[in-house]
Amino acid sequence: SGLIILSTVIVQKQVNFMISKDRGYDPENVMMLELGQISEQSRKSFIEKLKAQHVVKSVATSDVYFGEDFSMNAAYFETEEDQNYFHPSILPVDDEFQNTFNIKMKEGRFFDRERKGDFDAVVLNESALHEYGGAGSLIGKNVIFGGKTFQVIGIISDFNFRSLRYKIEPLVLMQMENCSNVYVKVRNAQIPDVIGLVQQMWREFHIDFPLNYTFHDEVVARHYVKDQQVKKLLFLLSVVSVAIACVGLYAVSFFSIVRRTKEIGIRKVNGARVAEVMAMLNKDFVKWVVIAFVIATPVAWYAMHRWLENFAYKTELSWWVFALAGLLALGIALLTVSWQSWKAATRNPVEALRYE
Question: Are 25 and 214 in contact (CB under 8 A)?
């Protein structure tokens, strides 16, 4: 059970780490809609009206669903030569995308719809910048992909647009207006107001398919559904294994104390205190619990180290995790046997010796 307790604590720590880790952008209070089935003009009018509402902070769009994996393409820095090759994901977005998700700029600027040249420009993330082997800044230089040449106008901070199981890959953002995936940043967490507003606009624009929406933090949470299931399963297994271990330990302690009834009585007659008798009875069980945990620790460390290799971003196997699990196992063992020890230590020694 020590092995299961250790594994449970580490899995809990890793899942909590993934859920709470800063992804490099703000996923909170972003309502996601899909408007690919209406005309471009209706979609444009819908988006413009949304932007004008006081409960809406900003509205962005993208051509692919932001929150899940999207396609990667061959690309080149400056010229189509092998030494300039890199393999980025391509994300077509509008000029509000950076502001809506609060993505930080490292260099240069983001897209501006008033600058027509920006439709032939790209913004790269830091991981793409690290692929560049040339000298000087990338701002103003060209990137080639899909048979077209684009000018680099900005570098954004890296952000996790995939599960934390994977490292951040090179990313190229290009500008595209009026895309079908819509992201509504809600002001001051006024989510019920925005939901009601969108439902009203749905009727107003006579959209003939059901309104389906989600929130971006929910999409992010889906990346870790299986890990959450493993977390719950291990917790259940740890509860069951601890319960079984406690029953076994209780039975062993009972029969051990029964065999030592005479010894306990003699010690009590000779002046042994209750605490001394309890310490004597508990130390043997504590010794075996400690030995078992010492054996389980390297096995758990190896198993959890291999499991954590599945994640590009992972928590540390800190010493305090093993110390906490050890103290937990020791505490459970002491609670289990102490009741029997206390009953034996407080029993009248005359009755114990008469029994013998």
Answer: no
Q: What is the pLDDT of residues 295-327, one digit of tens each?
A: 888 888 888 888 888 888 888 888 788 888 788
Please check whether residue 56 is in contact with residue 184, taking contact to mean a CB–CB distance below 8 angstroms.
Answer: yes
Separation of alpha carbons 253 and 251, rounded Å: 5
Element (H, E) at 197: helix 191-204
Cβ atoms 194, 55 nearer than 8 A? yes
Entry pTM: 0.75
Whole-angstrom Cα distance, residue 38 to residue 324? 56
What does the pLDDT look like over 17-51, one tens digit per residue? 888 888 899 999 999 999 988 999 999 999 999 99
Residue 245: name the closest of 2, 8, 10 by CA: 2
Of residues 330, 344, 345, the one with CA closest to residue 255: 344
Neighbours of 58 (CB within 10 A): 19
Amino acid at 209: F
CA 45 to chain centre: 37
Handedness of CA 118, 124, 130, 133 (dihedral sign): negative
Which DSSP symbol is given to 201? H
Residue 75 gets which letter from DSSP?
E
Structure tokens at 28: 């909170």
Q: What would the pLDDT profile of 262-272 be if each residue is shown by its tens digit?
A: 666 666 655 66
List Cα–Cα distances, 346 to 52, 138, 259, 265, 270, in angstroms: 77, 80, 16, 10, 14
SS3 142: strand
DSSP, collapsed to helix, strand or coil, labels residue 67 as coil
Cβ atoms of 338 and 254 within 8 Å: the answer is no
**CA angle, 14 then 19 then 23, to 5°:** 110
Low-confidence ranges of the chain (pLDDT < 70): 1-2, 257-272, 274, 277, 281, 339-340, 343-345, 347-356
Angle between helices 319-345 and 274-308 (to 10 degrees): 150
Six-digit token string for 22? 């800063």
